[in-house]
Write a structure and sequence with these properties.
The protein has 449 residues and is α/β, with parallel strands linked by helices. It has three domains: 6-143 and 263-325, FAD/NAD(P)-binding domain (3-Layer(bba) Sandwich); 151-260, FAD/NAD(P)-binding domain (3-Layer(bba) Sandwich), CATH 3.50.50.60; 339-443, 2-Layer Sandwich (Enolase-like, domain 1), CATH 3.30.390. It has helices at residues 15-26, 41-46, 48-66, 81-106, 157-160, 177-188, 208-220, 271-274, 310-325, 354-359, 408-420, 425-430; strands at 6-11, 31-35, 109-112, 115-119, 122-125, 128-137, 141-143, 155-156, 169-173, 192-197, 224-227, 231-237, 240-245, 250-253, 255-258, 262-264, 297-299, 339-341, 347-351, 364-371, 385-392, 398-404. Strands 1, 2, 3, 4, 5, 6 and 17 form a seven-stranded mixed β-sheet that branches. Strands 8-15-9-10-11 form a five-stranded parallel β-sheet. Helix 1 (15-26) packs parallel to helix 9 (310-325).
Length: 449
């Protein structure tokens, strides 16, 4: 019998922590987990799941607008923000109960409270202390808000799901996927949306053709962009919040949302006391087996700031548990990780962008198609979809696949398997397309651009 209270103690009951604890317990380990908020983490409670529910809600306006083109007469619709939020909360409560049940059924002890390292084998949760042979940190990330005068007048994505009412005019500061997704949500629900960004185009780091296609689609929905400008000061005025930008221009909004990035949630974790090294942005530095600088302490998920996606945290947590408690050897490989942006229009992407491939010195062929999605033809919507393959000119391997348009995230899951498997453009060309679909474009692209 071990001298420790547990074989594994997990700090943070989000996607990565819950998966690791359940798998480790299934391998016979004595496992405990702590959580200061609600079990389920960012994705379930204040991220992917509630966000996508709001995306669905915001898309009804577009469907109503397009319906006459298909012969439908739709009476004026009414929307209730309060009803939507109540329905969303019921679903999040249900998922929270599911996660609690998963831990209970796996035999994992749950301790509610903020966990803090005392040393490499001891965790404090409130007034209690627990010892463990191994400790896993899976505390995720938290929104980062710039330190500017009046910043407290704004809110982050965490608070966006709990607004008392829908504003008429909103400024969204930032241009990453969170900013872009919420811009689409608020715009679809009838809010006048302005997006401000200190650089020159949204979605930095994604393929340039994706960035241009999403920007055009957002502009077509009435979203306004203020590039080369960021909020410098917020002040309360009679008719809302006056925002003074870095270019000295001032404008008034009813609400300001900061979608200016997220940071690893490492503060007040006791990392220094335990000797755990951190890197840029206070991320916990780990190797391919999620090991930190302390032999008994590990970390997975957004707190390591590797690839900050829920399925990645799940994979990392599972691999950790298999490696440490089942005798397996499962290093993490983040190559060709697919991703989706639930923007409007939505994005699905996997592999290298054209820019990344060229930066690596690869000789590439680019195949690209821009077209009006069939769904929009009778509706009269002018928006263009975009599909793109980045191909290694020497090996013919498909290095990247990028789609913007209806159902892009759904169709990219299957193509992610193909890219991950190293299939060639010839393999794509030999595949029969499914007609009429947008996805068939990806197996019928013949001429490089």
């Amino acid at each position: 019998m071990s001298d420790y209270d547990y074989d594994l103690f997990v700090i943070g009951a989000g996607s990565g922590g819950v998966r690791a604890s359940r798998i480790a317990a299934g391998h016979g380990a004595r496992v405990a987990i702590c959580e200061e908020s609600r079990v389920g983490g960012t994705c379930v409670i204040r991220g992917c799941v509630p966000k996508k529910l709001l995306v669905y809600a915001s898309q009804f306006a577009e469907s109503f607008a397009d319906a006459p083109g298909y012969g439908w007469t739709v009476p004026p619709a009414e929307f209730s923000w309060a009803d939507l939020i109540a329905a969303k909360d019921r679903e999040i409560d249900r998922l929270n109960r599911v996660y609690l049940g998963l831990l209970d059924n796996a035999g994992v002890d749950l301790h509610m409270g903020r966990g803090r390292l005392i040393d490499g084998h001891t965790v404090a949760v409130g007034e209690q202390r627990f010892t463990a042979e191994k400790i896993l940190i899976a505390t995720g990330g938290r929104p980062w808000v710039p330190d500017i005068p009046g910043a407290s007048l704004g809110f982050s994505s965490d608070e966006a799901f709990h607004l008392d009412r829908l504003p008429e005019r909103i400024l969204i500061a930032g241009a990453g996927y969170i900013a872009v997704e919420f811009a689409g949500i608020f715009s679809g629900l009838g809010v006048d949306v302005t997006l401000a960004y200190r650089r020159d185009r949204i979605l930095r780091g994604f393929d340039d053709d994706i960035r241009r296609a999403v920007e055009a689609g957002m502009e077509g929905r009435g979203i306004r962009f203020r590039y080369h400008a960021a909020p410098a000061r917020l002040e309360t005025v009679d008719d809302g919040i006056e925002v003074t930008f870095s270019d000295d221009h001032a404008e008034t909004f009813d609400a300001v949302m900061f979608a200016t990035g997220r940071a690893p949630y490492t503060w007040d974790l006791g990392l220094e006391d335990a000797g755990v090294h951190t890197g840029p942005g206070n991320r916990i530095e780990v190797d391919e087996f999620s090991r930190t600088s302390v032999a008994s302490v590990f970390a997975v998920g957004d707190v390591t700031d590797r690839v900050n996606l829920t399925p990645v945290a799940l994979m990392e947590g599972h691999a950790f548990a298999d490696t440490q408690f089942a005798g397996a050897k499962r290093p993490i490989d983040h190559a060709d990780t697919p991703a989706a942006i639930f923007s409007q229009p939505p994005v699905g992407t996997v592999g290298l962008s054209e820019e990344q491939a060229r930066e690596q010195g690869l000789e590439v062929k680019v195949f690209r198609s821009r077209f009006t999605p069939m769904k929009y033809t009778l509706a009269g919507r002018a928006e263009k979809g975009m599909m793109k393959l980045v191909v290694d000119a020497r090996s013919d391997r498909v290095l990247g696949c990028h789609v913007v348009g209806p159902d892009a995230p759904e169709m990219l899951q299957g193509f992610a398997v193909a890219v991950r498997a190293g299939l060639t453009k010839a393999d794509f060309d030999r595949t029969i397309g499914i007609h009429p679909t947008a996805a068939e474009e990806l197996v019928t692209l013949r001429q490089p651009v």
